UniProtKB/TrEMBL annotation:
GO molecular function terms attached to this record: DNA binding; DNA-binding transcription factor activity
Superkingdom in the source lineage: Bacteria
Listed InterPro entries: ArgP, LTTR, LysR_HTH_N, LysR_subst-bd, WH-like_DNA-bd_sf, WH_DNA-bd_sf
PANTHER family assigned to the protein according to its UniProt record, in alphabetical order: HTH-TYPE TRANSCRIPTIONAL REGULATOR ARGP, TRANSCRIPTIONAL REGULATOR
UniProt domain HTH lysR-type: residue ranges: 2-58
Record PROSITE patterns: HTH_LYSR
Keywords: DNA-binding, Transcription, Transcription regulation
Family of the protein in this entry: Belongs to the LysR transcriptional regulatory family.
Entry keyword NADP: no
Protein's recorded name: LysR family transcriptional regulator, chromosome initiation inhibitor
């Protein structure tokens, strides 16, 4: 028989990235959290947690976390059907999402759904190239990523294409790309020497851009792990960057931002992944997200 109190402790340690914050979330002492995990490991006869900084689940721990995520969703469905079981007004869902979706179309997609279903969202920001790893580890119950193939026990649906433009400010173009601007055609040596802005270590969009121009994927770079701040750094002229078209259409129209290479764009497919046994709420959310996304993403 599974003791879900013990699984809850494991999930809290992973989600909160440590024992102290897990204890605060569970409203118990840190030693009590440790005791629950030791008891879980004693019953299973093997480790469920790698006690690193931050803690990481073992392969068995990942299986347990995946199960815990699905149990939470099924419990939420049951409490809606049997209101007397409710111990709070809201349901909770932890999901991984890329920062560009979070900064553009996602809030519009979720406002009405969250209110209608009394759903609280715990967003884990992860690049679209690696978001699926958060689901595979059992950390989240759903994610948005660029990979179509779901993990075992999950399903995926296609949402659409996020279209990126390589852009810079007029001042940046004058300083770093003067010959390109004067001729109307990219001068490769100028672009290779120009600084870029990347979101973080998992952001490989600039690398794809340079490779498509026949250049080396090696460049000077600023790092900005915030979508809105990223746009402002590009607009201020610190570097060029790849930004979703839907995020900068007014800036392009006004001339505040310019294309680095006229007519160039990069389309990244996005997929919604969720657990198959996540219950009616997760199924309804998948249909809702797919329906709304088609109004904001390219086909």
């Amino acid at each position: 028989m599974v003791d879900y109190k013990l699984l809850h402790a494991l999930a809290a340690v992973i989600e909160q990235a440590g024992f102290e914050r897990a204890a605060q979330q569970l409203h118990i002492s840190q030693s009590a959290v440790s005791q629950r995990l030791r008891l879980l490991e004693a019953r299973l006869g093997q480790a469920v947690l790698i006690r690193s900084t931050p803690p990481q689940p073992t392969a068995l721990g990942q299986q347990l976390l995946n199960h815990w995520q699905q149990v939470r969703l099924l419990e939420a469905q049951l409490t809606r059907q049997v209101p007397s079981l409710q111990d709070g007004a809201f349901n909770n869902l932890r999901l991984a999402i890329n920062a560009d979706s979070l900064a553009t179309w996602w809030p519009k997609a979720m406002a009405s759904f969250s209110q209608r279903h009394e759903l609280l969202l715990d967003h884990v920001v992860a690049d679209q190239a690696v978001g699926l790893e958060r689901m595979r580890s059992g950390e989240v119950a759903a994610c948005i990523c660029e990979h179509a193939q779901p993990v075992a026990g999950a399903r995926s649906v296609y949402l659409g294409q996020m279209v990126y433009r390589a852009v810079c400010s007029p001042a940046f173009a004058q300083r770093y790309l003067p010959a390109s601007q004067a001729s109307g055609q990219l001068v490769a040596s100028e672009l290779q020497a120009a600084p870029a802005i990347v979101f973080g270590p998992d952001d490989r969009l600039q690398h794809r851009f340079l490779l498509e121009q026949g250049l080396r994927a090696e460049f000077a770079q600023h790092v900005c792990p915030a979508s809105e701040g990223y746009v402002e750094l590009v607009a201020a002229g610190l570097g060029y960057g790849l930004i979703p078209q839907i995020q900068i259409e007014p800036a392009l129209a006004s001339g505040r931002l310019l294309d680095v290479v006229t007519g160039w764009h990069l389309s990244i497919p996005l997929y919604w992944h969720h657990w198959r046994q996540g219950g009616a709420l997760l199924d309804a959310l998948a249909k809702h997200v797919q329906h709304v996304a088609q109004h904001y993403l390219a086909a």
